[in-house]
Amino acid sequence: MQRETLTVRADEVRFASDDEGVFTGYASIFGEPDSYGDTIRPGAFRKALSTRAATGGPPMFWNHDPSQPIGVWTELVEDSRGLKVTGRLITETRAGAEALALLKAGAVNGLSIGFRARKSERGAKGGRVLTDIDLVEISLVSLPAASNARVTSVRHDRQPAGTAAFVQAVRRAAASLKG
């Protein structure tokens, strides 16, 4: 009977995900009047996105509160539907961890933009039609002004029950094999 030896370093066993707290969604939807009567046209974010690309993305706040940053935006793109965003919650902070818990539970899923209108016109129903927007910040919110501005997916580390014990056992076995 021939034996084979498997060498595994204990520090090589990893089950954590780099996607912890990453989420995507739409911070703004084109053509949809918000609760203030504002409607955003395609292309309204073009200048803001090119400016922000050079200076860094807008901050991510909890409910538009600048004293509560909760993460960073990693991608902002205008597509045919609206302003599509990808962000990462900073789960090492209490506020970021709480925001992730609320997202995972489905208790919160709204997104909202803080902006200054650079160019607008009056719409048929009296509201503003925004054609050029200075994007100041994007927030994870409980109640978005634009009803369809929502988080569409949340990635997080979901380890099945017993995984932690299994990882510890593998690490102990690897350490004992190491000698």
TrEMBL record:
InterPro entries: Peptidase_S78_dom, Prohead_protease. The keyword Hydrolase applies. GO terms for biological process: proteolysis. It comes from the Bacteria. The keyword Ubl conjugation does not apply. Signal peptide: none annotated. Keywords: Hydrolase, Protease, Viral release from host cell. One of its GO terms (molecular function) is peptidase activity. Residues 6-155 form the Prohead serine protease domain. This is HK97 family phage prohead protease. It comes from Acuticoccus sediminis.
